[in-house]
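lol so apparently i was supposed to do this last week
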Amino acid sequence: MSKSFARSAAFGVALVSAGALAALAPGCESDGDRRDGDGGAASASTGGDGASPSGKGGGAGSADDPFAPPATNALPPALRDGVFAAVDDALGTPAAPNAREVAPAALVASGRDAWKTRRCAVCHGAEGRGDGKRALLEDPRPRDFGRGQFRYKSTRMVHKPTRADLVHYVGQAQHAELVAEADAGERDALAAFVIWLAMRGELERNLAHVANEEDELDPDTVADERSYLIESWSEAPSKVSKVPPAPWEGDDAARAAAAKRGEALFHDAGKGGCMTCHGKGGTLEGATAASRAEVRDLRRAVLRGGARPIDLYRRIECGLAGTKMPGFGGHLGPDDIWDLVAYTLSLRG
Ligand code: HEC
Ligand code: HEC
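anyway here it is w/ heme C bound
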């Protein structure tokens, strides 16, 4: 079974500019474990406690193309096979997945079956590498889960999402229809399988990186890398950012006043600065050319991360890993963010 897994990891790199995040979102990076370097804040890189022992969590390289040449396959055959075997050993194979510290093997295995019946691989690829048949038709493209980078989550930029985040996300927007008939247990299993795929992909990247640097792969490195991944996924629930209740909850007049203040913030280049990318009133009018290609009209766009006020709060507080949108958590206080949420929702009528 594991042989059917095409070994085609792309050595990608986070798309978030670490510099931009440092400038705009110190709040989201203030947990003391921000990792600097090419991987940006969203994927692991060098330095900081909790960083991958190899110091290359999210993978090295500079290509942002998920279809970039496979790094593992570029290793000399003996080393390459060593990496594959080490990954199978450390986390099991699709036939017998093993990341029991993170999720029970039976749950991951039933997620694997659901991944097939719900046809997730059509876009994401059998291994979640973002190379499914339909991947090229999608905009944005599904990403390689092995980058360890997830956009829509309740934890700050550097942290992994929780399983609950993935369950919630997969029920939203373009995914909702796919899982409309799946019960809570099946969604949970799918999320557990996504985590397992992400761990496998990331482990392979990290080991390939070490093997490439050191021309060998010793068992201690494999054990360290495995523990690092287990820890970063297991700790996610303790990293969920606390969101204070919306001050305007259940009070229409207060909400309208908040939306008014939010409108001013949205268009104030020195404060929210949302307009730079989203344009006047979120319509893209006057937005920079670079962002026009990437950003959608906020009045109509499907909110991929969910349309609950708390979903929007989290998007604005911590940004979207892998896009140009930074987090504003260190720049704006909770009241400001709630004002922006009220304004964004008001745009949608
Ligand atoms: C029609 C194509 C398609 C199918 C089928 C599909 N996805 Fe996705 N998925 C995407 C795209 C595109 C993205 C990237 C969305 C984005 O960046 O906003 C994505 C992103 C994701 C993410 C990452 C979310 C994040 O926080 O970054 C997860 C998890 C996910 N999909 C799970 C699933 C599961 C589970 C299934 C099967 C039930 C599935 N997908 C089926 C297209 C698809
Ligand atoms: C540097 C550019 C940039 C800035 C500044 C920016 N955004 Fe974004 N924003 C993006 C990009 C890129 C996306 C992802 C593409 C999309 O969904 O349109 C996005 C997506 C969003 C989404 C959709 C999230 C979802 O779940 O689909 C919301 C809401 C949003 N931004 C609000 C804001 C607000 C409010 C501000 C100001 C506090 C802001 N943005 C500032 C670039 C930016």
